[in-house]
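User: What would this chain look like folded?
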Amino acid sequence: MIVETLKPENNEAAPIANATRYFGDYVRGRENNFDFLRFFAASLVIYCHSYALSGGMTRLDPLMRWNHGQMNMGAFAVHLFFIMSGFLITASFERSKTVGKFAKARVLRIFPALIVAVFFTVFVVGPLVTSLSMRDYFTNADTYRYLHNWTTRGPKLLPGVFLTNPVPGAVNGSLWTLFYELLCYVLVGLLGVTRLLRRPVVLALLILALVVPLKPTVSHYAFYKGLLVPFVAGMCCYLYRDKIPMKWYLVVVSLAGLIASGYCGLFGPGVAIFGSYLALWFAFSPSIRLNHFARRGDISYGLYIYAWPVQQTITHYFRGKISMPVLFLIAYPTVFALAALSWHFVEKRFIRMKSRVAQAVPA
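Assistant: Here's the prediction, encoded as structure tokens.
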């Protein structure tokens, strides 16, 4: 998943000691823990997928067992990504001032690494595991149709790939969220250019998304309830950043609300509402000093886009007979290495271009 890196709004001094502090005070600072949160969420997705890809053991997911099937750890991590994204992408639009610069920055962050990952899957992973001959694989039109996934929308299968795995044929089950993340970016852009990126409008949008029922048969139901709600919650937190205090009692209340929502069958909305405060409090808490966590590179996006095909490849070579811990322990360092390469040789270079785009905008 992509989450924008927060940049300082100005060089104002830190809040006065003992004064009430708000999220907005830390938005203007240089230190936060978003890098660690991104890394944690991406790692949690890998851990969760290890249950399913090692033999369909999703029911053993600890979070899902606790909330009786409402949400597994992977979905929780994606909610966390979308909360952070809603907060930081809204901040990014306000900095960009023009929708063109905003869009260019988003494109430079998402697509270069995704294109490389898709080509890696087709021309490295596919030939290693396909049940077809090399000639049949490379002359099959479906092989090249899979390349359309660089657009975030494309076929889910490659010829002869992963057909006998516990989750058969699924080449990269993580990419589906990227399309909906782009839709959320479009939402921010549209609200921005129409001058509707305002507190009452976004708050009303959040309330509508929470309370208006949508039948499961409606297309993109998972996006509407599972991704849009946490994203808009993050947007609200940014727009109300100067009204939301950093208080320990609110941490306790939010934890209690999150736990209660799990018992009441409302864990999804609970994560969006209470989880937003907890995530952003953690990101800005001065007592949690993880602001240098990604000083050697932000590999969270690479972890997210490479993990599934690597895990599927390992499961393939074990002929589907591999335990969840073994799959995770083998896959994680492999994915970590690929993500590091992606950062240093692809993402970092385009992020520099993105930074130049941001610097071109008048203060």
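Confidence is low (pLDDT under 50) at residues 10-14. If you want, I can go into more detail on any region.
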